[in-house]
Amino acid sequence: xxxxxxxxxxxxxxxxxxxxxxxxxxxxxxxxxxxxxxxxxxxxxxxxxxxxxxxxxxxxxxxxxxxxxxxxxxxxxxxxxxxxxxxxx
Length: 89
Description:
Number of strands: 0
Distance between the termini: 16 Å
Number of helices: 3
Helix content: over 70%
Mean pLDDT: 90
Low-confidence stretches: none
Largest sheet: none
Order of helices and strands: HHH
């Protein structure tokens, strides 16, 4: 059995976070009374509401968080999955 690919999971998770961040920014612009930009300011160092520089910084940080998750998750998953393999004689 092959384990999860770190590269594939890293890019997929990072793009998921980038897309989610972008959708949340759009939601905040469309519905400012429901905005959660204050949450983004706490989660993403240097993020301010809203400028192109801040948005691009948010994208970079979201992508980085995706890689952080992958770097922790994939080795853990592969380690536990390897333990569950049946032993062959």
